[in-house]
Amino acid sequence: MSSPSLSRSRWQALLKEYPDAIAAGVCAVLVLIGWFTLDRGWLGFSLLILAAAYVIGGYQNTLEGLGTLWREKELDVDLLMIVAALGAAALGLWRKEYYFIVDGGMLILIFAISGVLEGYAMSRTERSIQGLMSLTSDTARKLVDGQERMVSVAELQLGDRVLVKPGELVPTDGTIVEGSSELNQAPITGESMPVEKTVGDEVFAGTINGNGALKIQIDRSPESSLIQRVIRLVEQAQTETPPSQQFIERFERGYAKAIVLLGILLGTLPPFLLGWTWEDTVYRALIFLVVASPCALMAATMPALLSGIANGARHGILFKNGAQLEAIGQVRAIAFDKTGTLTTGKPQVVQVMAIEHPDKLLQVAAALENMSEHPIGAAIVHAAQKQGREWIEAVNVRSEPGRGISGKVEGKIAVVGKAAFVQAQAANCPESLAKQSQKWEQEGKTVVWVAYDNNILGIIAVADTVRATAARSIRHLKRLGIDRIVMLTGDNQRTAENIAQEIGIDGVYAELLPEAKLEVIRQLQQQYQSVAMVGDGINDAPALAQASVGIAMGIVGSDVALETADVVLMADRLEKLEYAIRLSRRSGQIVKQNIVFALSFILILLVANFTGNMTLPLGVLGHEGSTVLVILNGLRLLKD
Q: Where would you find this protein in the cell (predicted)?
C-alpha cells in the first residue's frame, strides 16, 4: 500500500502534467452530481457543486478570454461562452428554474474539453525537438597533440580534430583528414545504403560510423551542423499558423463581437422602440445569450472529426488532430520519400548470375558475409537462408572497408566485394558477367562479386525493393484526383528514376538534403496550395512539418518523424492513404451538413425569440436539442 506522501506526489505530478484534462474531468463529475441532486431536496448542495464546476471548468477559458480582451482589445468565443453560461445561471436563479444552471455548466464543460485537445496538439512541437536532440552526441574525442581527450561538443571550435571510432555517432559536421569507412547516413539523407567516405569527404553530425576509425577536422561550428539546422527548421515550420487557422480565429472573434453587440442592443432598446417592459426585455436578452451561444455550431466540427479519428484508428491510421483529418481531404499534391516509404528500406538480394553453380555462389558469399555486420552482407545471408542453403563457417576473415571481405572456406580462399577487389584475386573474368554487372548498376542496384579458389563464381544484385502495394496505391491516389505525385530522396538520380518509372510517380527530386526537401515542399505549396508529405526518417522531419499534412510510416518511421507528422500509417500500408483521404472527405461533408443545420436552427430560435414566441425552457430545449442532433450526426462515422 502506497504511503500518503507518495500518493500526494503522484497526484501533484499528474496535476502538473495534465492540468486541463484533470480540470475538464472534475468539471464533468461536478456537473453530473449537481444535475442528479437538483430535484432531491439538496438544492443548496447542488448549487454549491455547480458553482464549483463553473469555477474549475471555466477558470482557464475566463483567463484566456479576459487576457485577449485586455491585451488585444478583442472578444473571442472563450469569453462569449463564459458570458452565456453565467447568463443562463443568472436567469436560473432569477426565475428559480435551476436547470438553466446545469445548461450553463454543460456549455463550460464543452469548452474545457476543447482546451484539452488544443493543449495536446501544441505539445507535439516540444516532443519533436526532444526527439531530434537525442540524435546528437554530447561529447567528442578531441585530438590534442595526438592524444584523445573527451570534451563537450559545445567546446569544439573550427579547426579542431576529433576521432570517431567504429560504431560511434559523428559528433559534428566536418571533413575526413585521415581514414576511410562506410557511414550510415539514413538519419540525415535517407540513403538506403551506407556511403563510403574517405579523406576529403564531408561527414554530418548524427550519422553512424561503420567499421573504420576516422579523424575529422571541424569546418563548421556545432550549432551550425546539419542536424541542428534540421531542428531549427522543424521549430519554424511547426510554429507557422496556417491560413485556415487564422480564418477560424477571425471568425470566432467576429461572431463573439456580433453576439455581444446584439445582446446589448436587445437588452436596452426594446423598451424605447417596441414598448416592451424592462422585465420582458431582460428576459429576451438572456434567452438570446443562451440560444445564440455557438454550442451547436462549435459541435458541428469536433464530434465528426473525433469519430473520423476513431474510424481511422480502427483501420490503422492515426490522425493526431481533427484539423489534419479535415486537411488531408483537400490535398492536391503528394510528395513521397523513397527509402522506407515507397521502398521497404532494407537491402535484399534481387538477382543472381552464376557461371556454373548458383548454389555454391550463395554458399560462399553467405559464409563470408555471415561474419560481417554490413546491411548488404545481411541481405545475402538472408537470401541464402531463405533458399535453404547451408555453408561451412569461414575462417581467417578479413574486412577491407569500402572494398569487400575475404577469408577461407573449406581451406580455400574466398573473396566477396566490389568488382576490382574480387577480380584482382581471380584468374577469370567472363565478359558476360561484366556486361550484366554494368546493366544492374545502371538500374541503381548494388553489384557484389564472388570468387572462390581463384575463380569468379558469379555476381549478386542487391537493392532496396519497392513495396508490393506502392504502384497500386499511386494509381488509386491519382483516381481520387490528386494533381501531382512526386518522390523526394537522398539517393542518386538514376536509382530514383528507375523506381519512379516502376510505380508511376510523376516527378523525381534526387540527391536531396533535408533543407532541399523542405524547399521542394514550399515550391509545391506555391503551385498546389495544399501538399502532403509522406516520409519515415529524421531527414524528412522539416518537410513533414512544413507540409500542409505530414504523414509518417508507423513501423519503420523514426521517433522524430512520428512526432512531427500529423498522420501516421501504423502498419506502413500505403494503401491506407487512399482510405484516409476518402474518410477526410466524408467527414468534411458531415461537418458542412452540421454547420448548415446549426446556423439554421440558431436563426430559427433567434427569430422566435424576437417575435415573442420563445420561452427560456423552449430556448434551452431547442439549443441543447440542436446540439445533440449535430453531435449524433457527427458520430455516424463510428459505425463504419
A: Cell membrane
